[in-house]
Amino acid sequence: MTQSSGSYRAERLEHTICDDDLESLMESTVAAILAEGVFDWHTPPESGVLRRFFEGLLLVPERDVFIVRAPDGSICGAAVLAHAASRSETYGTSATITAFFIVPYERSKGLGNLLMDAIITRAQSRGAKVLDCRVRETLPEAVTLLTSLGFTHWGTHPYFARIGDRTVRGLFFSKLLVPEEKAMQWQPVSTPLSVPHHGPAPGGPVGKPLTLYPAIDLKGGACVRLRQGDMSEATHYSDNPPAQAKLFEQAGCRHLHIVDLDGAFAGQSANVKAVEDIIANTSLPIQLGGGLRDMKTIERWLEAGVSRVILGSAAVKDPGLVRQAARAWPGRVIAGIDARKGRVATEGWAEVSELTTTDLARRMEEAGVAGIIFTEITRDGMLEGLDIEQTVELARHVSIPVIASGGVGTLDHLHALRQAADETPGITGVIVGRALYDGRISLPEALAVLEGSC
């Protein structure tokens, strides 16, 4: 997709970018940051951070990166368009501009319109009916551009950003991308879908695959499972975590969920050797949580071979870290939301805050995480079934994927989640632990229920 004006052109980048273009993009981004801030930065980050940010951003399916190229081939502007998750029933009709800039020395040439035209064309081609954008009130040129293109200012956030010692308001804009009469045909979320939902025919395929994440919880270098997050209620299952990981791989699983329990309570990685041995002994993608409280530790594990990191306590106590990590490694940071009866728990579940799960989930979505793992602690390890009601409620309030966790004990529990996921597109997977180790559920049967996706 390319839009042109004179010798300037706007184009959407594909999944890779050449070194020269990346250097040019980084230079223009630094110029924009110094002028007024962009990509949530008000001071330029280290070049390595900026490089990883753009390289990672290009790998995220729900993000499009656009650039404006000058006559000499250099990049003088850029923007990011975020699409709703493909299975999101609630937010699937909208797209959001999350970043947009033209370098100061190339303004007043109509390049903002050129870039915006490319964004609108792309959003429409992906089926978006509404295009959203939010800007700081300190950016009058951006406000003028949006207004001139038919965006409607519909709301103001009084505490949108903090710049130095100032609090800056944010302005919310939206543009309808379809005729208004078509917009009137949309149904409110509370009404049934126009096409009745039918479950799969007996023996027939289910609506969508769910991902099964077999859990390896590490305590003292061994595989254990807890009851309701109580470290004194740990059941020992294996002294050889790498071998256990290999067994899951040989059984047909395609992902692993690992939690460093000692690290979660200590606030820093504790079962380092066990995790490193698992990485060395399997080719499966691994998502790792427990004790990840700073950028250095997160980077250490991502470079060691972990596919995604799970930030739990940090999601509550250090949202800035979550935002920074999600920006540096797009698509590779997910939030772990653990709750006791709707209230978020932290520090390896030892503390319970006043924050609700829905509030935290929305904050994490805004921070840029790639997904959420939701666990109701009172059910974890009890084998009495998932808290499907809370999981569904959470999935309906965010547009990023939600993975269910805590309480799976029988195939019926997986069938119940399967039915809920067919009706709630945001639910994409489930973590299973004790029931697999105890033999209450066999992996082949679990994979069959979840349509063979593990």
Automatic annotation (TrEMBL):
Catalytic residues of the enzyme: 217 (proton acceptor), 338 (proton donor)
EC number(s) from the headed UniProt entry: 5.3.1.16
PROSITE patterns cross-referenced by the UniProt entry: GNAT
Top-tier EC class: isomerase
GO molecular function: isomerase activity
Pathway the protein takes part in: Amino-acid biosynthesis; L-histidine biosynthesis; L-histidine from 5-phospho-alpha-D-ribose 1-diphosphate: step 4/9
Source organism superkingdom: Bacteria
Pfam families: Acetyltransf_1, His_biosynth
Keyword Membrane: no
InterPro entries xrefs: Acyl_CoA_acyltransferase, Aldolase_TIM, GNAT_dom, His_biosynth, HisA/PriA, HisA_bact_arch, Isoase_HisA-like, RibuloseP-bd_barrel
Protein name: 1-(5-phosphoribosyl)-5-[(5-phosphoribosylamino)methylideneamino] imidazole-4-carboxamide isomerase
Species name: Bombella mellum
Gene giving rise to this polypeptide: hisA
